[in-house]
């Protein structure tokens, strides 16, 4: 899971914080509440997740429970990958 978290965290820092590593993004930091990601950013994040991890994010899965923190995204990706492998 740490590789997934690193990939997601690096994407957020590079694309939404423009490389500013001074802001700590912990596994449970809310990306939406802290203003790191807006509605357009969520779509960019979904595209990145699909491309990086080879999964398809359904429209009804684009919810804060799946995408609001690095930890939530990593858990979501792992569940999708596990489901696809079964």
TrEMBL record:
Residue ranges of every copy of the Carrier domain listed in the record: 1-81
Entry-linked InterPro entries: ACP-like_sf, PP-bd_ACP
Protein name: Acyl carrier protein
Protein species of origin: Devosia crocina
